[in-house]
User: What shape does this take?
Amino acid sequence: MILSKNTELGEFDVIGTQPHVQKVWAEIEKSLPKYWAKFVAAQPAAPASRLASHFGGKQAPNSSAVLQAFATAVQKYEKLAPKYRDFFDPDAMEEFADSPASFKSHLAKEVPVIAGTLNQRRPELQEWQQDFRKAKANDLLTVFSNIMDFKEDWAATKSEAIFSKFDSREEFGLDDLDSDETMTLSSVIGMGIKSIVLFNLDPRIFPQRARTDLYGLYFLSGMQDFGLASESSEFLMINDREPASNGSLIMEHNFWYPYGLFSTYTIRIFRWLDEQVRTLGGALDTKVRYVYVSHFLSAVCAEHAEHMKVMRAHDRFGNPS
Assistant: This one.
C-alpha cells in the first residue's frame, strides 16, 4: 500500500474480502513447501535425544535439527516473556492504578519492546521516543489497562477446542484491538506494540504482528499485489512522505494491517507447519503456537536479506507502533 493513498483507494476494505483472502492464501500455501525446504536445509545437525522432552515420540531420520530449531525458539521466547507477564500481572496493574507516573516509569524500563526502542539511537526513532516521553502517564496506564481487560474478556471464551477451528477474520473478532480508541495512543501505542505485548502474555491465541512477521507474509505471498489499485503489497506500507536520504522510498511493514486478518493467515501457517512436523515424528505445542510461526517467518525473511536492505533503503528501521 502507499502511505499517502491507502485511504482514498479503499484497499483496507478490499484485502478483507473473501475472494481476495482466497487468492492471497493460495499463493502463500503454494510458497510454503519451498521455504520449508530452505528452513530444513539451513538447520545444523542436532542430537535427537535432546528433543524428546519437548516434542515426544520417535523422530524420523534427519528431523532432529528442525525440531531443535523450534524448541530453541520456544526457549528463547520463554527467557523474555516473563518480563511481560510480571509487569502486566493483574495484581501489579492494580497497584499501578494509584500511581500512573510509576507505571510509565516502570513501563519504560521493564517492558522490553518499550525499553528497547527508547534505548536505540537511530534518528528515525527520535520522533517516537519524543512522543512517548511527552505522553501522559495516565493515558498510558488507561490504554494498557483497557488492553488487559480486553485480553481477559476475549480469551475467556477461546478454549483450544474453539480457537483451533478459527479460520476467518470474523471468527477471531479482534477488530476492536485495531480500532477502539481507548486501546490506542496515537503515534505511541499502536497494533505493533500491542501485539508484541499480547504475544508475550499468551502466544497460544495472540500472534506477534511485528516487522519480520509482515515482511515474511510479503515474501510468502510472492511479493504480489493481487490486483490492488496501488499495485503494491498489502503487507507493506510504502512511505512516499519521508524518503530516505538518498531519495529512495522506504518499504515499511504495514503498521495498520488488520490484526484479525493477520491472525487468519498465521493460524493457517501454524496448521501447515504442524503437519510438516508431524511427518518428522513430532508435534507442535499449541500453547506456544505463534512462537513457531514467528520463528518461521523470520527464517523466510532471512532468505531475502538483500531484498530487505533495498526495501529499508539500507539505513532505516520503522516505528514499533
